[in-house]
Design a protein that fits this description.
Blueprint: H1 13-25, E1 54-62, H2 67-70, E2 75-80, H3 93-96, E3 103-105, H4 107-119, E4 125-128, H5 136-146, H6 154-160, E5 179-180, E6 183-184, E7 188-192, H7 198-207, E8 210-213, H8 222-227, H9 232-246, E9 249-250, E10 252-255, H10 261-275, E11 281-284
Parallel strand pairs: 2-4, 4-7, 7-8, 8-9, 10-11
Antiparallel strand pairs: 1-2, 1-3, 5-6
Length: 289
């Protein structure tokens, strides 16, 4: 029945998540490739071909996402380069296959991008790629900054604009729309291929408000043939089932591919119907040969 003590100016759950992400980076197990390379050292590379640095290709008000994410002002989308899958039909192939695309971005610059997008009226911060889980450490670091009353300097804002992809549209800043009870308030949207480990999922559970998983392939060899990715079905079904078990907010994207309706589309939709029939599903047609 005693009153709680005043919050101490000490590490919080945000800092714990950040520390865990950087420890994982030293023997990288962000995704099921489980390469175990020390990306901090950067002397060997795994499936994503990345060391510890993260690169952002672009960031902008995305008005092409699902309606309940884009709203009226757009989803505040930040596109990372590189990927841990090798899809032969990637719509963002230029950034997912080119690890040197875009600008190298540290956590403060990344936090600045998110801060600016939210102050310009974006309804959420949409972390996407390429694939985002391979940049987990940088994103968690940026979120920790945003949770600690981060305000970018004019120089940091100018630097972050190097990758801003909607320069012909001016968005008025409305700071009061970006805060709640005096604190920065931006819903975090995790937009991912969902080929990641339970360890990554546990860190993200603390930080993510809404999830947008891809679910592309059926249980056969299609993921190996088209994306050079083993363990796909068991990984994605496990991770999506975790979201349902945790009671998270999420919707699923499924890309329909030529000659893969019987082997991929039907099994995917049947699995969703059996396990989580109330989940929104976006059946997509953005196949890019």
């Amino acid at each position: 029945g005693a009153s709680l003590p005043q919050p101490a100016d000490a590490p919080s759950l945000l800092e714990l998540c950040r520390e865990l992400a950087y420890r994982m980076l030293a023997h990288c197990n962000f995704c099921p490739w489980n390469c175990r390379v020390d990306r901090m050292a950067g002397t060997k590379f795994g499936a994503c071909k990345l060391a510890s640095g993260s690169r952002v290709s672009s960031h902008f008000h995305h008005t092409g996402e699902e309606l309940f994410y884009r709203g009226t002002q757009g989803s505040g989308t930040i596109f990372f380069t590189s990927c841990n899958m090798r899809c032969a039909f990637c719509q963002n192939g230029d950034i997912s296959t080119d690890k040197d695309n875009g600008e190298e971005t540290d956590p403060r610059t990344l936090a600045t991008m998110a801060w600016m997008l939210r102050h310009e009226g974006c309804h959420n911060i949409n972390w996407v790629g390429g694939e985002v889980v391979i940049h987990l450490h940088t994103i968690v670091d940026a979120i920790a900054l945003l949770g600690r009353d981060f305000t970018p300097t004019p120089a940091e804002r100018k630097h972050a604009r190097k990758t801003k992809a909607d320069p012909f549209f001016w968005f008025d800043e409305v700071p009061r729309a970006a805060t709640y009870a005096g604190k920065f308030n931006a819903p975090m949207l995790w937009n991912s291929n969902f080929f990641m480990t339970p360890e990554s999922m546990k860190i993200l559970r603390v930080l993510t408000d809404v999830w947008l998983p891809d679910f592309k392939f059926g249980p056969g060899r299609c993921a190996m043939i088209l994306a050079k990715t083993p363990w796909y079905w068991e990984t994605v079904t496990r991770n999506v089932a975790l979201l349902a078990e945790w009671g998270e907010d999420f919707s699923i994207r499924h890309l329909v591919m030529p000659n893969h309706v019987e082997c991929c589309t039907y099994p995917v939709l049947e699995w969703i119907a059996e396990h989580m029939p109330a989940t929104p599903v976006n059946v997509m047609a953005q196949f890019n040969p």
